[in-house]
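Supplementary Methods, section 5.1.

A reviewer requested that the exact input to the structure prediction be made available. We therefore reproduce it here, unchanged from the version used in the analyses.
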Amino acid sequence: MVSAPGIFFAGIGTAALLIGAGFGGGVLLGKAAVNARPARTAEAQGSLPAARVVLPAMADVTPSSDRPAENIVKSPPPLQVESIPAVAPVQVNDFREQDRESEKQAARKAEKEQKQVAKKAAERERHKRYAAQKARQEAARRQQQQEQELRQQQQEGMGRSQPSSLMAFDRTQGPAEQINFFGR
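The structure derived from this sequence is encoded token-by-token as follows.
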């Protein structure tokens, strides 16, 4: 029978072996990726990019008695300056006009944004004034309502013969009532 420490160390050894194999495989794959990349770039650096090559027209071949016909080639005709098309000069003023137009557009846009900001500020100010006016009107209405209630109470108080009581239990008329918690 295998002892518990033997099983324990066998498990540790297996785990270490698997982790080592994983790291080793990662190193091998990393080296392969690093080594493959410079080979591709070296090929790209050694070759020139694709370009269009224009060759002069075929030269006339004149046979000679001394040499074979394949080796004799006439020189190409000289290039004529007239055959090269002239390049139109670039108008510098066009760029300046475009810059001016873009500046004008930017100025118009900034002015438009400024107007919108001013309009929003005016709207907020108008809203604040409206809210303040509404609050003043509401306060005036409440005060007027309180004054009317006070006048009515005074008029009712003048019609009474007995003074109004100041305390809730200040009763002069009628029998005294006894109140308890159970409603009897």
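The two ends are 92 Å apart (CA to CA). These observations are discussed further in the main text.
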